[in-house]
Each structure stands twice: as C-alpha cells, then as structure tokens.
C-alpha cells in the first residue's frame, strides 16, 4: 500500500507557523497582511477554494478584501478594480480567480496585477523569474506540491517526472519547479501519444488535467509517487450527493504506488497555504523593501 502524503496535515503545520509569524510581525506594524480575492461570476471549481481561503485568512489574522462581481461585469470595470487594489496600501496579495467568463481577457488582467502583489505567481515577471531560477512569487499549487515532496523526503533529483497538463496555473510552473529540483521532466497533454505508457515510466507523476479518475493502475509504475492535483466535483451514482474526486482513480492506484496524495486532503489545502505564504512574503517585502 502506498504511503499517504497528508497535505492537510502539512498545511495545518505551515499555517500554524504563519500565524505565529503574522502575530509577531503585526505587533511591529500598523496593520496585518491583506489578501484581495477577485471573483467574476460563479464557477463551481472556485467555490470551495474561496471558502477555504476566507476561513484560513480569518484564522491566521490576514485581512481579506473580497470582491465578488456579477458574471456580466465588463473588462474595463475589472481592470479598474485591479488598479485600485494595486494602489491600496492595506493589500499585499491580489488573486484573480480563474476561470473568468468568456468575454473577459484573463491574460490582460493577470498582466495588470502589480508583480509585487501577485500572490498567485501568474504575472509574466514572476513566471519569467521562475524560468530563470530567480527568486519571486511562485504559483501556489506547484509550490504546494514541492513542499509536500520535501516534507516526505521524496527527492526529485535524477528522477523521471511526468506532468500531465500544461496550464499556466499548474502544469507549466510545475514542470519548471521539478526541473529546478533536478528532475528529468516531461510535460504530457491531450495530444500526447501513448499517454498511459509514458506515465508508466514516471518516478513522480503529477496529474493536473481535471478529469475525474482518469489515471488508473495501468498508468502507474509500481512504487511511483503519484501527486493528484485534480479537484473534480462529481455526483455520486448511488447516494446522489456531490463529492470531490481527483484525476487519479485512488482506489486502484493506492495499492501499487509508493506514495500518493488523496483528494480531498492532499494538494488542495497546500494551494491555499502557499497563497497565504505568498501574501506574507509580499507583506514583509513591502515593509522591508
Ligand atoms: N487564480 C486562481 N488560482 C487558483 O489556485 C485557483 C483558481 N484561480 N481557481 C479555482 C482553482 C481551484 N483551486 C482550489 C484550491 C484548493 C481547494 C481546496 O482547498 N480543496 C480541499 C477541499 C475543499 C472541500 O472540501 O470542499 C481539498 O482538496 O482538500 C480547492 C480548489 C484553486 N484554484
Ligand atoms: Mg489540455
């Protein structure tokens, strides 16, 4: 049976440390760290995330500045709100919740965020820094994956890593972070030929495709580390209730993998934690230069 990589427990541990740091810092400053989350319209993928973020901010002593705008809000209005948040001295981190409605140019908005407040690490400056191996704000989900690997002493150096998915939010920055840790990295995607066979060669397999239970036992090398980034809400056939499942068919992969992250309780809570971590980093940098 695979070792379970408990992202939830690690998230709690890091958040306790962050809470202590924030408490200490706030004594010497006139304000706590601030995080602004901008959401346009309603997307089911976003609901759990927003809820967990707000709870965590409250617990840690981070001020939340939420803006939930209707789905038909214009590009210009959203841009104006980003400009205001860039100027607002109480705000250290800004996150624009993805995906955005079709009429919105997401790239233009992400590019508009002050790179020093880019808690999601998606601005070209921060992504460019990642490519060049310079310090900067790092994308939360892949940073969360790296923290889990580190906590469990899973060393990427020299290993074959396959990242399934090539999004700006997860796949591309994930591949770069694994490369930075000296893994030999392959990015696979919907056009990749012989996908299962390729995945079966991975020592570290990261699934970030958004397809419930897609990765079965025949995709996984025995003993491999399997990181499930998928957060898919599905309707349970028997009970009719909705529940979260990953991209990995956990029940069939757990017996043969060496280590595996569950959903829920794996990378999701780590994503939230890295967002808070980035917000605190920006806060300190904005005070100390
Ligand atoms: N700009 C942007 N950055 C993101 O990082 C981003 C985004 N937009 N849009 C939506 C997705 C989704 N996402 C989640 C993160 C954590 C949980 C999470 O905490 N999940 C818990 C379970 C939550 C529950 O039980 O409902 C877990 O996996 O254990 C969920 C979803 C971040 N995203
Ligand atoms: Mg794709």
UniProtKB/TrEMBL annotation:
Bilayer-crossing regions: none
GO biological process per UniProt: L-histidine biosynthetic process; methionine biosynthetic process; purine nucleotide biosynthetic process; tetrahydrofolate interconversion
Catalytic activity: (6R)-5,10-methylene-5,6,7,8-tetrahydrofolate + NADP(+) = (6R)-5,10-methenyltetrahydrofolate + NADPH; (6R)-5,10-methenyltetrahydrofolate + H2O = (6R)-10-formyltetrahydrofolate + H(+)
Domain Tetrahydrofolate dehydrogenase/cyclohydrolase catalytic: 5-120
Keyword set, alphabetical order: Amino-acid biosynthesis, Histidine biosynthesis, Hydrolase, Methionine biosynthesis, Multifunctional enzyme, NADP, One-carbon metabolism, Oxidoreductase, Purine biosynthesis
Gene3D superfamilies for this protein: Leucine Dehydrogenase, chain A, domain 1, NAD(P)-binding Rossmann-like Domain
Coiled coil (residue ranges): none
Pathway per the UniProt entry: One-carbon metabolism; tetrahydrofolate interconversion
Positions contributing to NADP(+) binding: 165-167, 231
Top-level division of the source organism's lineage: Bacteria
Cellular component GO terms held in the UniProt record: cytosol
InterPro entries: Aminoacid_DH-like_N_sf, NAD(P)-bd_dom_sf, THF_DH/CycHdrlase, THF_DH/CycHdrlase_cat_dom, THF_DH/CycHdrlase_CS, THF_DH/CycHdrlase_NAD-bd_dom
EC number(s) on file: 1.5.1.5, 3.5.4.9
An example molecular function term from Gene Ontology annotations: methenyltetrahydrofolate cyclohydrolase activity
Family: Belongs to the tetrahydrofolate dehydrogenase/cyclohydrolase family.
Subunit organization: Homodimer.
UniProt cross-references to HAMAP family, sorted A to Z: THF_DHG_CYH
Name this polypeptide is given: Bifunctional protein FolD
Designated gene of the protein: folD
């Amino acid at each position: 049976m695979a070792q379970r990589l408990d992202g939830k427990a690690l998230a709690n541990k890091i958040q306790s440390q962050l809470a202590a740091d924030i408490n200490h810092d706030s004594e010497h400053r006139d304000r706590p760290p601030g995080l602004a989350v901008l959401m346009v319209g309603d997307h089911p993928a976003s609901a759990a995330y927003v809820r967990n973020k707000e709870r965590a901010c409250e617990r840690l002593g981070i001020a939340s500045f939420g803006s939930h705008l209707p789905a038909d809000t214009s590009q210009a209005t959203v841009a104006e709100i980003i400009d205001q948040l860039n100027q607002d001295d109480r705000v250290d981190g800004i996150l624009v919740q993805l995906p955005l409605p079709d009429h919105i140019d997401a790239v233009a908005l992400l590019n508009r965020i002050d790179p020093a407040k880019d808690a999601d690490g998606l601005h070209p400056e921060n992504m460019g820094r990642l490519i060049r191996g310079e310090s900067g704000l790092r994308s939360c989900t892949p940073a969360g994956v790296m923290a889990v690997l580190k906590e469990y002493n899973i060393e990427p150096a020299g290993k074959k890593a396959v990242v399934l998915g090539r999004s700006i939010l997860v796949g591309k920055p994930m591949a770069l972070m694994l490369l930075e840790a000296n893994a030999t990295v392959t990015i696979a995607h919907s056009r990749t030929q012989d996908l299962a066979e390729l995945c079966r060669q991975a020592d570290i397999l990261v699934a970030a495709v958004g397809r419930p239970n897609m990765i079965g036992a025949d995709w996984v090398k025995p003993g491999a580390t399997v990181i499930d980034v998928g957060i898919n809400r599905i309707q349970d056939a028997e009970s009719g209730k909705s529940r979260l499942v990953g991209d990995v068919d956990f029940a069939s992969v757990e017996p043969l993998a060496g280590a595996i992250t569950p959903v829920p309780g794996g990378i999701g809570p780590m994503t939230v934690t890295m967002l808070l971590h980035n917000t605190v980093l920006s806060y300190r940098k904005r005070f100390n230069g």
